[in-house]
Amino acid sequence: MEVFECVSTLSSIRSYIQKEAPEDVVMEVLEAGRLAPSAHNDQPWEFVLIRDKSVLKGLERFCLSGKFVSKVSFAVVVVTDPSSKWHEIDSTRAVQNMVLTAWSRKLGSCWIGRLDREGLMNYLGIPSHLNVLTVLPFGYFDERLGGGGKFRRSPEEVFHLNRFGERI
User: Fold this and answer.
1) Which of 5, 75, 93, 165 is the most exposed place for a label (fewest CB within 10 A)?
2) Which domain holds residue 23?
3) pTM greater than 0.90 (yes/no)
4) Would you say residue 166 lies in a domain?
5) How confident is the model at residue 151 (pLDDT cuts 50, 70, 90)?
6) Per-residue burial over 31-43, b = 16 or more CB atoms within 10 Å of its CB, e = otherwise
7) Does some domain include residue 25?
8) What is the pLDDT of residues 115-127, one digit of tens each?
9) Considering the domain boundaries, does residue 88 fall inside one?
């Protein structure tokens, strides 16, 4: 799948089918995150890969807006290092790389934003000087139910030329 096709069809997926992702696809998703660009090449991220079904089930307690996390093939907990000024921005770039790579392999995902971060960090043994940015579930989904059209404001509403308010 070409990059623009990924971007133009990407949807957040919250319902998954029971099908395991092959190891090479899982590693490709992680590698896409690792290869993301970062300010000063700080690479202020680490990724906790969760494949064990009992650990995925345990994540439900901490993923307040993503109880579906237990139904996926795997999840990635994105951990950032706040000693880097740009840790959230750079790690978000890594997240987008992972999500787009997964999408190109027919795996859906959904940024889980409401988290019990402290509980999650304790559950996974993440050191307290680090930060949890998000949990990313990854899994196959019924393509008839996701990945279709999406509503976006028109280019005329969001594009400006040279100055704000000047339309293209």
Assistant:
1) 165
2) 3-158
3) yes
4) no
5) confident
6) ebbeebebeeeeb
7) yes
8) 999 999 999 999 9
9) yes
Predicted pLDDT at 152? 86
Q: Residues 141-150: pLDDT tens digits? A: 987 766 556 7
1: Cα separation from own chain's centroid: 18
Kindly report the CATH number assigned to the domain that includes residue 75: 3.40.109.10
Domain membership flag for residue 131:
yes
DSSP string, 112-141: B--B-HHHHHHHHT--TTSEEEEEEEEE--
Which three-class secondary structure state does DSSP give residue 91?
helix
Q: How far is CA 35 from the centre of its chain?
A: 15
Rg, the chain, Cα only: 17
User: 3-12, 26-35, 139-148: which range is least confident on average?
Assistant: 139-148
Q: Which H helix or E strand runs over 108?
A: strand 108-109
Structure-block tokens of residue 1: 């799948």
SS3 of residue 162 by DSSP = coil
* DSSP conformational letter for 84: S
Q: What is the phi-psi region of residue 152: left when phi exceeds 0, alpha when psi lies from -120 to 50, beta otherwise?
A: beta
Helix, strand, or coil (residue 80): strand
